[in-house]
Amino acid sequence: MILPVIGYGDPVLRTVCEEISAAYPDLKQLIANMFETMYNASGVGLAAPQIGLPIRLFIVDLEPFSDDEDLSEAERSNLGDFKKVFINAKMLKEEGEEWAFNEGCLSIPDVREDVYRHERITIEYYDENFVKKTQDFSGMAARVIQHEYDHIEGVLFTDHVSTLKKQMIKKRLLNIMEGKIRADYKMKFFAKKGR
């Protein structure tokens, strides 16, 4: 089932999310719905707060990057079948040189900015079968995971841009909050109270 994506301004996007157990109600169905929602919106990652749930769960599928000419052949080949579920993730290490990439977010449509992120990460998480894993990721995989991990910590990619850039996108962010934008997918807008 395709769920509405929560738009910028909703407090759930600023929530440090709670861990869940393997007994979380309808977890398999929730994960399936999240993938369906993400694919419908042409995304490569989606975190539970983006569908209104303040829980430590996010998904990624990096297949769209497998034909990105800007990436090395080796990295492209690794991304073709990179589809993962991260539950109760904990970032253990972020290291290496920080590099810029023009990021966007399904909760912040039509806003893209260069964001600097670490080249390599080590993350501990449970997969969809609640098997605990500790893995290292680098390059584009590390970047997308860092972006989605930020969501479960209540951080948005716009928090990583300069004060000047924030001023430049302020009006667009306000328009998203007030539902004055159109996305190619179902969204739920915060819409300021009293208007």
Automatic annotation (TrEMBL):
Removes the formyl group from the N-terminal Met of newly synthesized proteins. Requires at least a dipeptide for an efficient rate of reaction. N-terminal L-methionine is a prerequisite for activity but the enzyme has broad specificity at other positions. This is Peptide deformylase. Binds 1 Fe(2+) ion. NCBIfam families: pept_deformyl, PRK00150.1-3. GO terms for molecular function: metal ion binding; peptide deformylase activity. Its EC number is 3.5.1.88. It catalyses: N-terminal N-formyl-L-methionyl-[peptide] + H2O = N-terminal L-methionyl-[peptide] + formate. The keyword Amino-acid biosynthesis does not apply. Its cofactor is Fe(2+). Belongs to the polypeptide deformylase family.
